[in-house]
Design goal:
The complex is a heterodimer of chains A (about 300) and B (about 150). Chain A is mainly alpha-helical. Chain A contains 12 helices and 5 strands. In chain A, strand 1 and strand 2 form a beta hairpin. Classes of the chains: A mainly alpha (about 300), B mainly alpha (about 150). Chains A and B meet through strand 5 and helix 11 of A and helix 1 and helix 5 of B.
Amino acid sequence: MKRLAIGLLAVAILGFSVFWWLTIPKAIDSTVKDWISKSGDPILGETIFWAGGCASCHAVKGAKGKDKLKLGGNHSLVTPVGTFNVPNISPDRENGIGAWSVEDFANAMLHGTSPDGKHYYPAFPYTSYSSMNYDDVKHLWTYIQTLEPVKTQNKPHDLTFPFNISRGLGLWKLAFKEYQPVLNVGNTDNFLQRGQYLVETLGHCGECHTPRASLGYGGGNTSRWLSGGPAPEGNGKIPNITPHETGIGSWSEADIVYYLESGFTPDFDSVGGSMTSVQENMAKLPKSDLEAVAKYLKTIPAVALN
Amino acid sequence: MLKRTLTTAIVSTSVLISVSIAQAGPIEDRKAKMKEVGKNLGIIGKMVKGETAFDGVAALAAYNAMGAVGTGFGEFFPVGSETGGETTASPKIWSDPAGFEAKGKQFGVDLGVAIQAGTPSDLAALKVSFGSVAKNCKACHTDYRIKKE
C-alpha cells in the first residue's frame, strides 16, 4: 500500500514536472539581441499601430478621435470562458507599460509572455503578432512611447475554471501558436506579401474571421481560413471574407478598398458591431496598404460559409 | 366539457396566431424600410464612390425618399419583436431605448439638413452631405445591430 502511494506520488511529480517543463513561457532568442540597440521610427510605428488595431481593445470602448490614443485599457471582452479585462498599455510607468524594456515588449508581442514570465491569454492576439518582424516591433514600441500616459488601474480577468489557470496556456501555445503562413505567396510579389502581412499578421483578421479548431477553443482552422464563424463574444456571426459567393466573391478589389475607407459595402449596407473600430483603424492606412489587403483577400481560396 | 375544451383550444390558437402575426409584422416592416433606406443611400453613395455620374436632382430625390421612409422608423421596434424573423436587431435596442432613440434622432437631424440644403450644386457638396448623413448608419449599427450571416 505504501509502495503504491509512493509510486502514485512519483507519477504525479513526474507528470507535473513534464507539464511545468512543457509550459515554460518562451522569450526572444539571445541571438537577436543586437536588434535591441537599433532605433525605432515612430512614424512607421504609427502605421503598425493602426494596422494592428491596438486601439480597438486598449482604448476605451467606443473611443473617437484622439481618445483612441489613450491606451488605458478598461474595455471588457465578455466571452464564453469569462470576462477579459483589457490592460493599460499606455506609457504610464505605474499602471501601463512605461517601465518595460523593449525586450519585455517583444516577448509580449511575439511570444505572449509577460515581463514577470507568465503567459498572456490569446484574447491578446499574439498568435498573429508572433510573425511580426523585429524592426516593426521596435517601431511600434517607439510610437507607443510617444502617447499620453493614462492612470487607469488594471483589473484582473474574471475567468471560469480551468481557463483561469494561465500556466495551462503553455499547452495551448504548443498546440496552436506556431505560425505557418496560410497562403503560400512566394517571395516575388512584394505587393501580395504586404497584403499577407497586413491580414495574417498585423491586422490579425483570422482571429475573428476564421472559425476556431477544437470546438472553438483552439487556434484558427486554417483549412477554413477567413470563412467566418460564430462571434467570439458569443452574439451573432462574423462574416465570410473569402472570394466565395457566401463571402465577398462579388466584391471587386476597389469595393474592398472602399469598404475599408468608408465603412460601406457595395450595396451601401454599413459596417457595424466590433468591425466599426477595425474599419476606422484601417481607414488610417495608406491607400496602397488597403489595395494590398484587397489583393490578398481576392487571392485566398474561396471557402463556403459553414 | 368538450365544448369548453374546443373553445379554449380555438381561443388559444387564435391568440397564438395573432401574436405571431404581431411579431412578424414589425420585423418584416423594419427590414423592408431599412432596405429602402440602403437603396436610396446607394444612389448617392455610388455617385460619391465614382461608380455613377453626379446627378444633383436624383441625389436630392434620394434624400427625400430616405426621409419619407425613415419617419416613424423607431415605432417598428415594439416590445415583443426582439426575436424571430431572422431579425438582426440587437437586444440593446430594448435594454437601452434612450440611446437607440438618440441615434435615430441624430440621423433625422443630419438628413433634414441635407434635404433643407436643396439640390447639391456639385460632387464636392454632395460628398459633404453624404458624409454627414451616412455616418449615422454605422453609428447605430455598431451598437444596435448584430450580424447574423
